[in-house]
Amino acid sequence: MKNKILGGIVLFLLALGFIVYKNKNNKVLTNTDDIFVEEYYTPPDEIKKERIIIVCITGEIQNPGTYEMAEGTRVKDLVNIAGGLKDSSDTSRLNLARKLIDEDLVVIPAKVTANQNTMLSEKGSDVQTNNAAESNTNNKINLNTASSSELISIPGIGKVTAEKIIKYREEKGFFSKIEQLMEIDRIGEATFNKIKDYVEIY
Question: What CATH homologous superfamily does 137-200 map to?
């Protein structure tokens, strides 16, 4: 009887020791596994901030003014935000697909009416008629309207100098006095004295 009790105690202790050993090993393995576990974290993509540009629109538009637009938008987008085009606008001279840039100025042109075309034509005809009449009376070249060929006809004026005179007129505006010719490269006082009797302004 005593031996059976001792045998039972031994078996209990063995069983208890096995359970403790197993739990201990499991804990060690778990801790070991944890050492080699790597966590990978992928941060969310940054939201790309939209760049804002400031542009101005004027002319034949419903609501002209300055507007803040997203970079990459086009003229047509600005037109829509500004209330749309007026009936008097001329879109044939407007590139609605062009991308806007910061500090852009968009001018919506107006249509040219038939009356305006007629007035411009008549004005041009009058100017040409008057120029021809005055040219016939004094044979002088008008610096404000002369073509390259007319300027070349002046003694002392070649093709290069004639082009410089026309360029000066386009950049500076009409001549107010013939002495302004001396402001042009290649025309010094000596050359001016040669040609001054062949030119005039009006």
Answer: Photosystem II 12 kDa extrinsic protein (1.10.150.320)
